[in-house]
Amino acid sequence: MKVKGFLLLSLITITSIGISITSFCLRNSVYKDYYNNLAQVPMEAVPFKAMADGVFPWTKVSLPENKEEKPASSSVTVAQQEAREIKEFKTVDDSYFDDALFIGDSRMVGLSQYCVAIDSRATFFAQKSLTIFDIRNKEWIEAEDGTEMSIAKALEGKHFKKIYLMVGINELGTGDEERFRNVYAQVIEGLKYLQPDATIFINSIMHVSEEKNNTDELYNNTNINIRNEAIKGLADNRTVFYLDINEAVDDENGNLRAETTGDGVHLKGACYEPWHQYLLEHGVE
Predict the structure, then answer these.
(1) What's the pTM value of the predicted model, to 2 decimals?
(2) Which of 51, 75, 177, 270 has the most Cβ atoms closer than 10 angstroms to its Cβ?
(3) How far is the C-alpha of 276 from the C-alpha of 29, rounded, in Å?
(4) Main-chain phi, psi angles of 110, to 5 degrees
């Protein structure tokens, strides 16, 4: 029994050391987001926390986080960036979406299904249950041959002038608003790298109905507002803009209008026009 106990203890010790080494070696790549607070998540616990979020040692980090330096003649200096004039919203027509890409979860899927004016012109990379973590790490966009590819691969050879993002409802049970904001910022930087001429529009996380808000401890508007405030600060009103879609779909109490939703979360098929009109009223040139 003593021998078996010793062997078991040795196996546990070796496994713990192996996990810690793996965690440390991947601290600047796959596990980067989990090293923000080692006081709450010890190094040896990082891989288990990551696995709970669907992130494994072999997970690919598809979006580059930093741009490579370009020759001085073509690079944009910090001074030039700061000198760019802050832009204001203007009303546009549907041709504005001819060179637009929409990325998002099931709510964005609904926009593609029920707003023909946009879907007939724009490109959609949208998927049910999509999260900001999926956009950054996973191969989730279906290719013509049925295989799935990363957003970086999907954008090869493409040229978009506008990119609209809407995710966040599915992430409410994962991490906190700081981690959500950090990964969102990384995705934006990656998209800037992949599509340097694109203006990026952050669509707010759409609210839920009053009934849903009052009965769900997780998927409620208090939690949604906390996440929206976190990503709102990513906009610089030069190349990245924040769109408060809730202005178009909320009732007077700040809840998704009850008559526009069947499940308290998603818009009914006939109720996407306010969102469409809001986008038309918030173009930039």
Answers:
(1) 0.75
(2) 177
(3) 38
(4) -60, -40
